[in-house]
Automatic annotation (TrEMBL):
Gene3D superfamilies: 3.30.1360.150, Alkaline Phosphatase, subunit A
The keyword Metal-binding appears for this protein: yes
Signal peptide feature range: 1-33
Keywords: Metal-binding, Phosphoprotein, Signal
Annotated catalytic residues: 85 (phosphothreonine intermediate)
Name of the molecule in the record: Alkaline phosphatase family protein
Amino acid sequence: MLLTIRPERLSTMSRLLTTLAVLSALSALPAQAKAPKLTLFISVDALGSDLLLRNRPRLTGGLGQLLNTGAYYPYARYAYAKARTAPGHATLATGANPWRHGIVDNDVQDRATGQSVQVYMDPTHQILEGVTVPTADASPANLMAETLADRLLGATQGRGKVVALSFKARSAIPLAGRTGQAWWFDGATGQMVTSTWYAKSVPAWVQALNARKLADASFGRTWELLRPRAEYVGEDDRAAEPDAYGMGRAFPHSLRNGLTAPGPQSYKAFAVSPFSHDLLVQAGKAALEGEGLGKDGIPDLLAVSFSGTDETFHAFGPYSWEMQDSLLRLDQALGELIAAAERAAGGRANLLIALSADHGGAEIPEAWAASGVPAARINPVEVSKALAKELRTKFGVDVTVSIVALDVYLGGKALESGQVDGVTVRRAAAAWLAKQPFAVTALARDDLDTAQDTAGFVAPLRRGYYPERSGDVLFMAKPFQVVTDYPRGTNHGVPYSYESQVPVVFSGRGVKPGMYFQEIDPVDVAPTLSALLEMGMPASAEGKPRAEALTGSR
């Protein structure tokens, strides 16, 4: 018997089959774009790759878990010359080098006054409920590139929220950009503060945080070792270590320093100690709750830059027991911060995490020298005097000389009036510097674009040069030469691997876990986060998303 299908039945079945085919096709497409509710960006000041790698086996808390479960790049390397805090954070935030974002160092010379000023100086904006210093960091006015925070707020049309926290203004400001909130520790009052660029009054959650007086509560505390002494490598009391802020050179370290009450002097010791990590964790938790970060479907950003590691590094060096213990305690602190961020976002599936650093750092040069490394401490004040004398002898006029890391600023009436030719003086200064035993090369700013780069040192100087703020002459120190006017401790500011290589870690939805050994550039951090947030990149970004670590799934 033949089966007869009525025409109207055939039409209905055809429509049904068509509908099923469409639904099947749609199900094969990616789900509707949905960015993580909350991004937690963590910066660890002075966390060089070498420092992290040799301490990694002992890290079992938040930091260790990120390394084990995230996409971990141990070898990200800054491509510009001066490995410093302000340019490092600006590069992480913008995806650009200093030649685009304009932040060349922590401090620069104001050419109008000849005075050294902090790079984020803005005398038109006051510090709220803190101490205002006209030459101190206050706003992002000098940041010449869009940041990840700015792009997020633009992409969400102002509906998202951004909060950046650090002990240092020069770290918090670029992470907040022009449109987020930046809060930092005021060493005069012991409170978290901001400037009138970011707020007109202090919000309730910051008032409540400051009312807890966490820095004051640490007055009189003793920094003890977290683990048994046998677990620490090397010697505790090394000859080249200073008695930092009266804390002593060996454990245990008292933060009291003979004082009778907490204040600016005790806050300096507090900043060196790992207790500063705890304050930033508490500030992060307060921001999560107070601003309601991660509570809705609009992406938010919390950026926290831990500065205590850098303070410890400068005083005791990257191989010290103090640095080892600071990392162990940071490992614990990050576990608490990440757990709080997970709760705020409603689970790990709604949380994106990134971690990196602004720079690494040199060993204490005397310790290097004692082990046979050709290291030396170079005092820029003494070099400035010697160069000024050389220029006086050569040209018969006085030229002022000021050296900030690798930048040499020249000035004085003879130059300003045209009594001597500026180009000739700058080239003479560069020629003298290039002959010094601590230098590899030196260039007048006039020759920066045309100089041959046979050894690869000129390109980093170019990427770090911004005409309005960089020096008149730029030089490159040899490896293991530590430029600092402090007689003890150590410093950073050159492009060698021990200072320029830092870790980068991504973790969360859309990230392919693993250890990625290719060398990348930290300019890739902001573009990669932009891709994971499914938005455009910051306007001046030079980096690119790290596609090999992205799954493409949502």
